[in-house]
Amino acid sequence: MPFAFKLPDLGEGVAEGEVVRWLVAEGDTVAEDQPLAEVLTDKATVEIPSPRAGRIVRLGAAEGERVPVGHVLVEIEEAQASRPADHTETISTEATASGSAPASPTDTGPSFSPTVRPAAKEAAGLLRAVEATPAVRALARELGVDLTQVEGTGPGGRLLPDDVRRAASHTRAPAVTTAVAMEAEVPATGAEPEAPGAAPSGDEERVPLRGLRRRIAEAMTKTHALVPQFTFVAEADVDAVMADRERRKAEAEAQGVKLTFVSYVLRALGPSLRSFPYLNASLDDEKQEIVLKKGIHVAVAVAAPDGLTVPVVRHADSLGLFDLAREVGRLAEQARKNALKPEELSGATFTVTTTGAKGGVLATPLVHHPQVAVLGIHAVTPKPVVRDGQIVIRRMVNLSLSLDHRVVDGQLGADFLYDLIGRLESPLEGWVA
Amino acid sequence: MSHDTAPGEIKLLTVLEPEGRPRADLDADLDADLCLRLYRAMHFQRVLDGRLLNLQRQGRIGFYGTATGQEATTFAAAAAVSDSDWVFPALREGGILLWRGFPLESYLCQLIGNQGDTLHGHQMPCHYADKSVNVVSWSSCIATQLPHAVGMAFAAQKLGDPHIALAFLGDGATSSPDFHAAMNFAGVWKAPVVFVCQNNHWAISVPVSKQTAVTEIVRKADGYGVPGVRVDGNDAAAVYLAMREAAGRARSGGGPTFIEAVTYRMGGHSSSDDPTRYREEAEVKTWGDRDPIVRFRRYLEHRGLWGEAREAEATKEAQARIAAAIAKAEALPPPALETLFEDVYAEMPWHLREQRDWFLEAGGPEGKSEGRFPL
Questions:
Q1: Using 50, 70 and 90 to split pLDDT, how confident is the model at B186?
Q2: For residue B52, which of A146, A227, B25, B33 sits 20 to 30 Å off, Cα-Cα?
Q3: pTM for this predicted structure
Q4: CB pairs A-B closer than 8 Å
Q5: What is the C-alpha to C-alpha distance for residues A264 and A271, in angstroms, rounded to an integer?
Q6: How far is A368 from chain B (nearest CA, A)?
Q7: Contacts of A186 in chain B (CB under 8 A)
Q8: Inter-CA distances, B301 with A188, B20, B292, B344, Å
Q9: Where in the sequence numbering do the catalytic residues of A fall?
Q10: In terms of pLDDT, which residue wins out, A430 or A367?
Q11: How high is the pLDDT of residue A171?
Q12: How far is A45 from chain B (nearest CA, A)?
């Protein structure tokens, strides 16, 4: 069977790593310590050397893929006699220095301790961890509460004094019975019935918060806790834009470009962000400085297999309409393949997100800290509107702009949005080009 | 050699030119056998560090920190004192255990934390210590070892014990309160201690300029009435001579010395660190050109003590010795469960004895309780 090399914890508590680059391919023969891959973690990018000599049978991840610690990174068909275990027969007690010599492996076998009794072993599997301070344990003893049967409400499920008191008041059996159980052999608790909520029950499923989902959770918690934000919504008449799009669609397709409405918004955004530098900014909380960004790099939220991701269109203000459309298409494709490079995911100065075909009327997108603004684009919908005293049908779009109120006030935010809308509604030759 | 720490320019004590030629007539001062032993130790450490960092990347050990770039200071300092003088390490001086004859297999067992680890897995990997070689336990806290070293030295002085203390510290440690306490008492008591400050320019990611306003750290010694020397830490001969003089002073009742060894940490702070995030490649390259091992090798070649063939042979030997030791160490089982409760108190208190007994009953082999214990 090939040797399965699992991604190790590369730095004191790293949970996952991203394979940046493979340095070997399936079928390659590798020597021990030969570099296999570059892996990026929260702490560092490191080269992973092969623990074994042999032939690479399988690579366990694509470049750009994030995998958890313990995931099989690579399978190696070993060359003969390269396993450290082959040296087992040479082990002797001489391996230790002065001081206590370990018992030779034949005395203890591969397990730990000879003092464990069989009864304890069986019960051990049924025990669950109890997290409580000594004071809480003392209280539990006093009140006759079996801590293994109580659900903790403290951080990480820690048992608090109130949990113990609550459990004491609910205990149906006389306290003295439980107290006896506490004093008895620990294994006795293994026979107790399952406490409510102690184990996963049938009416809920628990999904671990991992990878991209966890990253999103962390980023959103941070931005929500840190940034006092508000949302301003306005609508734009994009009839002319949509007509232009229909006109040019075939031309775009001929060039392999999918001309989307969002490309027009991105095209219109550049000049607006130039005119309103405080919207293309960040707040340096530590230095108490507003940082006005010279480059305009717009992140565009796209769906990826594991959740939402926001690749960045760099220098968005310097790209033409088709180039913008092409770049967004390329980034979305990379996102779907989980193949975005770190530099394609960082350095944004402004974010655009869309609400999809169903659109909605209003959204409160969250500012992506340390940026100060995010623009939500709703679906383009034909609506009755009043023009020259007449009700006519025009294609309209709602735009929801969320702002970091520490940097941008309502008036400035509204001015910016109306500047953008003004451009979208003005003759196209003036800005699309 | 001048040890002038008065205001004005401070001399950097250097005796080997970059191409290995001695600045003074050193050969008589540096015994050929000693030179060879010193070189072999530095060279072995370099090969060992490369291999062990790989082991960490493969998940076979949990953590590692290399001494790369700082081998000269570490080993030349150890070479200039008696093997039974007490060493209070900072964090890159593990090689001194090997210098003093600690078995390589046990050294590797410490990294794994298995049954062959004389510390029974109680320390972080790479935080070596052993009574048999008079190297005390590392502390991950900064500078806490310094008052201990002074206390030990002061006690030795009072008891008429001939041993001195060799206390290592980094540049960052000189900005800590324990440094002040230690230096102050060392100065006023004339304790037989030598402080060796490995100024490797980086306290993890903090450069010297961000943690102290003094440009030459050795100036701090003046404030405590402790003689100071600033030495080229990448020059094994210079470190050896400075250290020998300092050790002689300590042993003859002359009191402490502070040595600032100017060197450079070529690798990351540890296996968890990525130095490319905070320092320039050009700086690393500059110091790479001042490699202490290359410089000392050139000196040995200059004396006709070393050559390409010996170098290749030494590398091969080191690799084979390390590979064999790793195989032996990796085959050992984890420490016995009860060792978890040992080594803290000379006599185990009743509450620990009770916990140990519960633990051994319920803990079970192979982690049947999934590593959890219902305390």
A1: very high
A2: B33
A3: 0.58
A4: 171
A5: 12
A6: 23
A7: 358, 361-362, 374
A8: 73, 8, 14, 49
A9: 405
A10: A367
A11: 55
A12: 7
CB neighbours of A376 closer than 8 A, spacing ≥ 6?
A: A353, A354, A355, A363, A365, A399, A400, A401, A402
Distance CA A279, CA A271 (A): 12
pLDDT at A115 over 50: no
Considering only the beta carbons, identify the residue of A45, A96, A121 that sits closest to B106: A96
Query: Considering chain A, what is the average pLDDT of its residues?
Result: 80
Distance to chain A for B152, nearest Cα, Å: 22
Residues of chain A contacting residue B268, judged by C-beta atoms under 8 Å apart: 44
* Residues of B catalogued as catalytic: 265, 269, 278
Whether residue A196 has pLDDT greater than 70? no
> Domains in chain A, ordered, with CATH?
3-80 (2.40.50.100), 129-191 (4.10.320.10), 212-430 (3.30.559.10)
Under an 8 A CB cutoff, do B333 and A115 touch?
Answer: no
Domains of chain B: 32-330 (3.40.50.970), 337-367 (no CATH)
Nearest to A228 by CA among A417, A401, A407: A407
Q: What is the DSSP string of B237-289?
A: HHHHHHHHHHHHHHHTT---EEEEEE----S-SSTT--GGGTS-HHHHHHHHT
How close does chain B come to A178, measured CA to CA in Å?
Answer: 16
What pLDDT, on a 0 to 100 scale, did the predictor assign at position A26?
Answer: 93
> Which of A8, A51, A121 comes nearest B368 by C-beta?
A121
- Return the pLDDT at A250: 92
Give the least confident one: A78-92, A307-321, A386-400.
A78-92
pLDDT at A162 over 80: yes
pLDDT band at A201; cut points 50, 70, 90: low
Subunit contact B333:A113, Cβ cutoff 8 A? no
Which of A12, A34, A113 best probes binding to B when mutated, by most B CB atoms within 10 angstroms?
A113
**What is the share, in percent, of chain A residues with pLDDT greater than 70?**
80
Assigned token pair, A82: 């390269």
Most confident of B194-203, B274-283, B359-368: B194-203
Q: What is the C-alpha to C-alpha distance for residues A161 and B110, in angstroms, rounded to an integer?
A: 40
